[in-house]
Amino acid sequence: MSGFEPEGRKFESCRGYQFAIVILMAKINKLQIISLLLRVGLPFCFLYAAFFSFKNPQEWISFVPHFTTKFLAAETSLKLISSTQIVLAVWLLWGKWLRYSAAIAFLLLTGIVALNLNLMVITFRDIGLAFMALALIFLDL
Length: 141
Fold this sequence. Notes:
The protein has helices at residues 16-27, 30-55, 57-60, 74-94, 98-115, 120-139.
């Protein structure tokens, strides 16, 4: 017997970090942990893209849908998309009305893929991110 036995059993030889993990697991159920991980991982991707599109817009301008340039300059469209990603990332981290923010994230990501099929070598990752957003929708039902 190792002494490290969760679920209310003895903790005689339990190390400090193990005890902290057991206490944390007792207070937060698995679905809450999954939701938290998704709510941190997905916004990270949005914040990364937004930050670097503001920092180096010429590297990101090719992702702007061409039809938007009929109404706005490509640089302006990129700034709007990046600003939307920042707002969406904060909303996902906040967790309030999660199914709505996750649904918008899902639509944004599927739109990015659909409008950039010629860049699938890069945007294929957005399909996985879209499914992360979809999982958040179902976790919040």
